[in-house]
Amino acid sequence: MIRLSNIHFSYKSGDFNLSIPDLRVEAGEKVGVVGPSGSGKTTLLNLVAGILTPEKGSVCINEMEINCQNDTTRRDFRITNIGFIFQDFGLLDYLDVKDNILHPYRITGALKLNNDVRDRADKLAIQMGIDDKLNRHPSALSHGERQRVAICRALLPGPKLVLADEATGNLDPKNKVHILELLFKNVDKHDATLLAVTHDQELLPYFDKVINFNDFLREETL
Q1: Which of 56, 148, 174, 218 is the most interior residue, by most CB within 10 Å?
Q2: For residue 13, how far is the Cα from the chain centroid?
Q3: What is the dihedral angle through the alpha carbons of 49, 50, 53, 56, rounded to the nearest 10 degrees?
């Protein structure tokens, strides 16, 4: 499903550098990503999604080397194949919750909005406990509620790959496990793969395996 080989990436400003010799995630795996703040965990998700491209190396998703594609191809691939749960939610405040969940279907012709999609959006909202918030706008929601909206939006197209950047970071202890289980259930339903950044050590046993960015940092110093 995911293979990164000989990756080198740096931002134009600052002294951040990321090197990943080899990283593989098999189809259907649920993988947690941990490591110190600023080590490159969010950058990894952006590279996998094709939002960023490496200076060197390759990023392959289902045999497609996405870093070699143009912007339009990467964008269409991301919208139709990847569900991304952003750390800052990425919600649009001028849209209500229902339209935020449906938003991926309104920005590309690759996804077709119909009544079945609207029904799925309603069911996801019920699962995530925000079905009574569908007519509200993000500014009227708590951080945890906004996080749930972002999860619904990412899961709605039934992506084969879900990238989550602290998907449960704004939830209380009881709800974070509940939401993680719902996320896993939806991933399993679509035979999808999950790559999730988390700082919550208590959640790591739920994942099939864990990638620790400290390993990459040690390799850089050798």
Answers
A1: 148
A2: 25
A3: 70
Tokens of 151: 């999860």
The domain ranges of the chain are 2-221
| Residue with the larger pLDDT of the pair 172 and 78 | 78
For residue 82, count CB atoms less than 10 angstroms from its CB and return exposed for 0-12, middle for 13-18, buried for 19 or more: buried
pTM of this prediction exceeds 0.90: yes
Residue 174 has pLDDT above 90, yes or no: no
CATH of 2-221, one of 3.40.1190.20, 3.30.530.20, 3.40.50.300, 3.40.50.720: 3.40.50.300
Specify the residue for token string 């990238």: 163
Alpha-carbon separation of residue 45 from 28, 87, 106, 185 (angstroms): 17, 11, 24, 21
Sheet arrangement for strand 30-34: 82-85, 161-165, 193-197, 30-34, 209-212
Residue 184 burial by CB count (10 A; 0-12/13-18/19+): exposed, middle or buried? middle
Amino acid occupying residue 67: N
DSSP classification of residue 159: -
Q: Calculate Rg over the CA atoms of the chain.
A: 17
Per-residue confidence (pLDDT) for residue 58, from 0 to 100:
96
Q: In the structure encoding, which two tokens stand for residue 63, read together? A: 């045999």
